[in-house]
User: What shape does this take?
Amino acid sequence: MSNQERSSLDGDCCSPLIREPLNADWAGDLAHMFKALGDPVRLRLLSLVASHAGGEACVCDISPAFDLSQPTISHHLKVLREAGLLDCERRGTWVYYWVVPTALQQLSSVLSSADPTAVMA
Assistant: This one.
């Protein structure tokens, strides 16, 4: 299923997960994204990038928030990029990262319930 087809599902009345079973390709794509977010460091990295002024952050802005080596941070950023959650661009000696909005929309749409007021018991 293409990203455009997935995006059109977002406007429907309920989550694709509730409406019908996910196809194998989409389930694989989503699983890859969820797996990337399953690590607390990567979840924090995504949050730091998304909440940074201007919606993008340089590695030099991100690194001080962690007690990790630069290669470890680079590895986690690579995992997020490979999962389609972040994109980046080299500018001089630094690499700038930003969140891919459509990826977050896909994750959100598949998890949202048909009734936004429904509370889990």
Summary: Residues 1-11 have pLDDT under 50 and may be disordered.
